[in-house]
Amino acid sequence: MSIVWFEIPADNIELAKEFYSSLFGWKFAKLPAAVNDYWHIDTGGGDDTPDGGLMPRMHPRQAITNYVSVPSVTKAMAKVEKLGGKICKSKTAVPGMGYFAICEDTEGNTFAIWEMNNRAK
Q1: Best CA proximity match to 86, nearest among 111, 114, 58
Q2: What is the pLDDT of residues 37-55, one digit of tens each?
Q3: Residue 77: which H helix or E strand, with range?
Q4: Distance from C-alpha of 33 to C-alpha of 74, rounded to nearest angstrom
Q5: Spatial strand order in the sheet of 3-10
């Protein structure tokens, strides 16, 4: 399993775009279907390196979230809980792309699990 996506929360989207663009050369494109101000981050790497998203911060302590690929979000959620972690946001569909869930590990760190599935509704 590997990291396949990340999300960076920001209070000032334009300032964050300028920072990461200048620092790493990342390119940003607004996703037209996004409900909020959500930007795709093209990190410039090959297909084997993750891209990410830039989004408005939803709460003051929101940190960067890494998405880890799993074969089944449902099975991975059960394993998270069995190992003492918590489910913060249950299995959620991204239509035509897949499913994700937001979890918390035993140390209070949040992360997401991602299942590719182009039939997700």
Answers
A1: 111
A2: 899 999 998 888 899 999 9
A3: helix 73-82
A4: 26
A5: 27-30, 39-42, 51-56, 3-10, 65-69, 110-116, 98-104, 86-94
Over residues 70-105, the pLDDT tens digits come to 999 999 999 999 999 999 999 999 999 999 999 999
Other Cβ atoms less than 10 A from the Cβ of 87: the count is 16
Total-model pTM: 0.90
How far from 111 is each of 15, 28, 119, 121, CA to CA, in Å?
Answer: 25, 23, 24, 22
Residue spans of beta strands (DSSP E) within the chain: 3-10, 27-30, 39-42, 51-56, 65-69, 86-94, 98-104, 110-116
Q: Which two tokens stand for residue 52?
A: 């990410």
At residue 34 the predicted structure's pLDDT band, cuts being 50, 70 and 90, is low
Beta pairing partners, 5: 51, 67
Torsion sign across C-alpha atoms 110, 78, 2, 112: negative
Q: Residue 26 in 3-state DSSP?
A: coil
